[in-house]
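name: query_chain
kind: protein
chains: 1
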Amino acid sequence: MISHEVSRNVVTNPISIAMRQAHTSVEDVPSIASGRGDIRSRTDEAHQLLKWKILTMEIPPGTWLNERHLVESTGFTRAPIHQALHRLESDALVEIRPRKGAQVRIWTPQDIAHLMEARIPLELTVVSLACERAKQSELDALTAELAKGPQLLADMDREGLVRLDHTFHQSLAEFARNPVLGELIENVHHRSMLLWAVPLSGYQEYESVMAQHQEILGAITKRDPALATSAMKRHLSSFVSPDHRTTL
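structure:
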């Protein structure tokens, strides 16, 4: 049985704040419980719901996911839940074990090292392209979004900080205007979000992350690729330094 209840609460999924703000939840989809809508759309919604609950640690690593319980707690039928779990396996968020079921993946130090080796060159390419292609209106919108950080930090709103981090990196990927690169970044960043399972040690580390985000955005606003890539490399490299356990 799942150790943390998966309910049909609203799930906010940060995406491009420069162009829109979207909220992904089962409530946003009309009449799921009544059975309307095709199986693909229901599978999409079940996948997004469960994925965000895993990424925000509402369902923590190591949790066993029981299909029957998920059906009862979410209101989806068994088919979309079953397919959603297999999608989560493809996302590297869940491991399906024969005769045991599905378990939220537990990350090892080697997994983390491999992830960062893949992520750093992608992010450096993103910020370099963003310097050339980002619209000023988009940069202004992201600046306004980052301004929410101090209040989230004052409240020690960990979920809000995770969402803000996701919004920041996904927005930069969209500014690059390369859909292939955007898909790769989204996949890698979703995996990285699980690393927030190891909390930052306190206020100063969260504050450092926000300062790094501001530095990166400032360099992009100046249209300086060398400065932007240098700032992004320092930001991501701090993740594996002895002083920072989970700086994303």
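note: The chain has two domains: 26-104, 109-240.
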